[in-house]
């Protein structure tokens, strides 16, 4: 009798880079941590995860070194991105999707050719849907605000290195999947971010349903796609559909 197939999994990844946008910038480290479905249907972290340094093919600007503290000499003999990416990003055939916190950033470097056109879950976008009361939606603020069960404090340090950040994100992803399922997270991730509160201007800090119509109209033409999408969604709610702002768990399940 053949062994049962391995359980489905999602690989959480995090990149450290020389800057925000290729091809001007390159990857200098990738980290990963897998989250898989158990026999009881619950999702949990599996495996040890890992990280690899990558030669970005250019010098590291001081402004990015001040974030991740990776030195040029540490990556001088490391493999290039195209020699590392497929193996790290594509644990075929078990992988259902890739995930990252603010996945739009990782997707710039992790192209469809390197991921077999994998779908992505953005835990930043999903966190705003599931936990709108969070004081911030950064990976680390969510970590200390939520205090996920089972997280090992030291294993998630130092922040802004690829494996520790992927490890922390994996706990957010685990809890998200167990709340609403993979398909819901994928659906939210395909859309722009739905912001729980106004981020700037005289209405800063207010929930979107609290601001006046005139203020809302000004946000409809904003250059930021997340702001624009949120304003459009709130306008649709006022005209009879959708919801933006504080939701109870019961609201989300209805």
UniProtKB/TrEMBL annotation:
InterPro entries in the cross-refs: Ribonucl_H (IPR013520), RNaseH-like_sf (IPR012337), RNaseH_sf (IPR036397)
Gene3D superfamilies: Ribonuclease H-like superfamily/Ribonuclease H (3.30.420.10)
GO molecular function, one term: nucleic acid binding
Domain Exonuclease: 9-182
CDD domains documented for this protein: DEDDh
Cellular component terms (Gene Ontology): cytosol
GO biological process, one term: DNA replication proofreading
Pfam families hit by this protein: RNase_T
Name of this chain's protein: DNA polymerase III subunit epsilon
Organism field: Sphingomonas panacis
Species lineage: Bacteria, Pseudomonadati, Pseudomonadota, Alphaproteobacteria, Sphingomonadales
């Amino acid at each position: 009798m053949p062994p049962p197939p391995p359980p489905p999994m999602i690989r959480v990844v995090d990149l450290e880079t020389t800057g925000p946008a290729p091809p001007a910038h390159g990857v200098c480290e990738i980290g990963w941590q897998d989250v898989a479905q158990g026999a009881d249907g619950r999702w949990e972290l599996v495996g040890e995860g890992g990280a690899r340094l990558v030669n970005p093919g250019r010098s590291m600007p001081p402004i990015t070194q001040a974030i991740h503290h990776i030195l040029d000499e540490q990556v001088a003999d490391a493999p290039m991105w195209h020699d590392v990416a497929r193996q790290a990003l594509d644990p075929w055939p078990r992988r259902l999707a890739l995930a990252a916190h603010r996945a739009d950033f990782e997707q710039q470097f992790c192209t469809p050719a390197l991921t077999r056109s994998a779908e992505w879950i953005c835990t930043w976008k999903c966190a705003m849907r599931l936990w709108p009361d969070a004081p911030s939606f950064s990976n680390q603020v969510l970590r200390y605000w939520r205090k996920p069960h089972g997280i090992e404090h030291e294993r998630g340090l130092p922040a802004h290195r690829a494996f520790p950040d992927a490890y922390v994100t994996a706990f957010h992803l685990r809890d998200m999947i167990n709340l609403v399922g993979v398909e819901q997270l994928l659906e939210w991730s395909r859309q722009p971010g739905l912001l729980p509160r106004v981020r700037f201007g005289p209405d800063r800090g207010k929930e979107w349903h609290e601001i006046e119509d005139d203020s809302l109209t000004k946000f409809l033409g904003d250059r930021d796609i997340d702001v624009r999408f949120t304003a459009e969604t709130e306008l649709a709610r006022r005209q009879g559909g959708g919801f933006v702002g504080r939701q109870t768990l019961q609201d989300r399940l209805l």
